[in-house]
Amino acid sequence: MAKGYPARVEVVEQPQVADVPTSTLGYRVRVGSYRTKVAADATKALLAASGEFGNSVYTGWDGQRAARGPWHVKVVTIDPRTFRGSLGASYGPDLRDRETTSQLSRTAGATVGVNGGFFVLDPASGAPGDPAGVGVFGGKLLSAPTNGRPALILNRDARGTSVGRLSWKGSVVVGGRGVAVAGINRVPGLIRNCGGDLGDSPTALPLHDVACTDDSELVAFTSQFGPTTPSGAGREIVMNSRHVVSSVSVTRGRALAAGSTSLQGIGEAGDALAQVHVGDRLELRSRLVDAAGQTQATAGDTTVVNGGPCWSATGARTSLSSTTAWSTLGTPRSPTAGWSNATREPLPASTPRDEPFWSRSTAAALMTWA
Known about the structure:
Helix content: under 10%
Radius of gyration: 22 Å
Structural class: mainly beta
Number of helices: 3
Strand order of the largest sheet: 7-6-20-8-9
Largest sheet: 5 strands, antiparallel
Shape: globular
């Protein structure tokens, strides 16, 4: 019972996909079953008054085989020959925090906004809201790819849109020696969706919805990450816009001024930063490449949004999980599914049961008309 209402715990199953075996994704706690959203919202209000967080959720969204819809999919078609607006993406005030697609669209004054890209949810996997894969905004690479994963490449004029498999290599010269940089704007040691380098555990291959780890790596940060860089053990150096080192610290966590960058290091890789002193000039070498090994151009009007596993290579459906499908669903009117109040929807197996869990957007593809 939840505040006098009958409650149930439902297992959320992960179907077999390209690189994730069948498993238990997590659990959700639901209260009641209602034929309309209005009725579900009434109970949700009563639960909220008693101190319980909840959402009204249409059970037809669960992706079960018994679900019959109807589903209303809204499609926006752009004709590049006549389009006179601008196409791009937004991550909000900073990369680290989450906003809804509606919030991002309103702030940008967009005519159309679509949820885009995967991102960190669980603090145990990194900074919640941080892109889990490549992110290029206004031509600037702000998040490194999950190497080899598909990514959507957009141009402001809507011409030349493509899907490519991107990878990234970064390095910095310290003490006359090149040192690999493993990532951009993410918590050192945590690689959401994996696909990093050979030092990562359990694999350097992409692994969707899994956080790989690495106890020795360097990660670069820009001021777009958030109010401060991640705090913790290790070293951090801050560089100004001319790549001159302005501060050196034996702990991590600094506020970055606009135009400044920093390098954080943990483990043996972090020890290399002990050779750096204030006044030194360091330059981060960064190269985003396509599947053919050619440099991927990122002009000022380029946006790149990360994608997930490849569902099909032949046109035949392999598997599609409702937890990762992107769609816009209208108001349901099917007798095969109803509305339910979910106080935890869903709850990852690694998350304490008393922690609210919800989904927000880290990036949205936005379109405006001139």
